[in-house]
Amino acid sequence: VTPETDEDLVRFMDAAAAFLGLPIPATCRPGVVENLKTLRRHTALIMEFPVCEHTDIAPIFRL
Amino acid sequence: VSERPLPEPPVPQGAPESALDIAGAVRSGARSAVDTVERALETIRRRDPDVNAFTAIFADRALADARRIDARQAAGEDVGPLAGCPFAVKNLFDVEGEITLAGAKLRAQSPPAARDAAAVTRLKAAGAILIGALNMDEFAYGFSTENAHYGTTRNPHAPDRIAGGSSGGSAAAVACGMAPIALGSDTNGSIRVPAALCGVYGFKPTFGRLSRAGAFPFVSSLDHIGPFARSVRDLTAVYDALQSPDPDDPACAQRAVDPVLGRLEEAPEGLRVGVLGGWFQQGATPEALAAVDAVAAAFSRCDIVELPEAERARSAAFCITAAEGGALHLRTLKDRYEDYDLATRDRLIAGALLPASVTLHAQRFRAWFRAQAERLFAEYDLLLAPATLCSAPRIGQSTVRIDGVETSVRANLGAHTQPLSFIGLPVLAAPVARLGGLPLGVQIAAAPWREDLILRAARQLERQGVLAAPIVGAKPC
User: Fold this and answer.
1) Which member of B144, B167, B185, B190 is catalytic?
2) Comparing C-alpha atoms, which of B166, B155, B174 is closest to residue B393?
3) Are B353 and A1 an interchain contact pair (Cβ–Cβ within 8 Å)?
4) To the nearest whole percent, how much of chain B has pLDDT over 70?
């Protein structure tokens, strides 16, 4: 799911932003890339964890 | 972060009072609500220029509300359990006729709110009087209340340090006596972090317990609201007043109101208490861990326990937050990106780009993680953990040295709060009584819907002197 290198990350940023029609001004690009690096670390930690197929998502979480 | 003794702060004029003391005096007629509000406004005028907690002060409407309370009291009506008690709210709560800023410049031209947020309505119904709105991180996305548009809220204990965030104005206002009670919101720790750094009580009840209707959203699947106070009794009184099912908030549970104040002095017996180990001990300063030990020592039995995969839970909360926040702001990011705080803007853009598969997996992991917590609560009634990894960092400070390692302050201030709010547990950030040094807080968590256990245990800890939230600037009695 997550790009492997910083160059991949920049390509991912541009492709995903184009998909959403979200322009990323030049002044924002370094900050967005830094934040994507942080998200990449957290994403890797989440995605490596196997969750049973029968486990429901919890977008509105009820207890 | 050094733990140097602080110089004696100036003593404020007029003795600060608890919310329930004020209400008792107003209800009996011993004191007028107008007098209470005038005192609060005077304290704000004197202290807020140094703290910058308030972004709006509603003096005229507060005095008008106070006059109505006094008239009703004189007519023999029941004026409510919080009669005449001033309160203030994080500026993401709707206040009828006022613009809801949510800490953002780009909302400064928005239409005024058509009605009060549900929480504001409920406190007013209990007789409390709204006196102002409070500073916060832009759109609640941060832990420092260093707001690019409305300034930094300074920690009343040390003006060169942050108050924490995102509800920093709420914690600071209560800490220095500008309001005895305040409201904030907590998505990943935004009540508990500033409460800990400012040395007050901050309570995040179970997800779904309190209505968020009329509170500007950030991450719908994680957003909570809750109160701040300087005593467990005040906190409990506000918590009781806030409870009620609400169809205007789809996440608000259809549960009966469960008031706690009437049984607050009943000490819970035979409590099984666990100190969370593993992730919850990592990265914390010795002082933060000592604060947990001080609370743990007050219980007759206390074990070190593990909540499995807490670090992963923190990551999952981090990604859900980024993605939901980014999606919420996507349209505005396209049209008005230049009006955002730079740091908020870049975080939101990055979050908006996160693939859905990540957040959906994180939401499924959330259900798994909740099951681990349920297993733990089968054996333990309360869980303890540091509220923050350190005491309040200096304003602008980016890292803190822990165990010889430079650690990012901003990235980690909520590291210990995020796993618990991720699964909606009720958690109190409780101020630990310390001689000298900056404030530190301990999280006291319970199983879902057991807010009563937390508050009753905290009341006993307060009576024993383990917890305390002395007003900043007041000499001890």
Assistant:
1) B190
2) B155
3) no
4) 95
- Count the helix, strand and coil residues of chain B and give each as a percent rounded to the nearest 5: 40, 15, 45
Q: Directed axis angle between helix B310-336 and helix A29-47, to 10°?
A: 150
Four-residue CA torsion sign, B188, B194, B196, B197: positive
In A, which residues are within 8 Å of B345 by CB distance? 28, 31
Q: How far B349 CA sits from the closest chain A CA (Å)?
A: 7
Give contacts of A51 with chain B, Cβ < 8 Å: 361, 364-365, 367-368
- Residue B412's pLDDT is 84
Q: Which residue has the tokens 């990323």?
A: A24
Q: Give, in order, the Cα–Cα distances in Å from B121 to each of A3, B126, B244.
A: 48, 9, 11
Q: Using alpha carbons, select from B72, B136, B73 the residue that is nearest to residue B103.
A: B136
Q: Tell me, yes or no, if B166 is annotated catalytic.
A: yes
| Per-residue pLDDT at B467 exceeds 50 | yes
Q: Is the pTM of this model over 0.90?
A: yes
Look at residue B60 in the predicted model and tell me its pLDDT: 98
pLDDT at B48 over 80: yes
Please spell the DSSP secondary structure of B175-195, one letter per residue. Answer: HTTS-SEEEEEESSSTTHHHH
Q: What confidence tens digit (pLDDT) does each residue in A28-49 have?
A: 999 999 999 999 999 999 999 9
Average confidence (pLDDT) over B35-43: 97
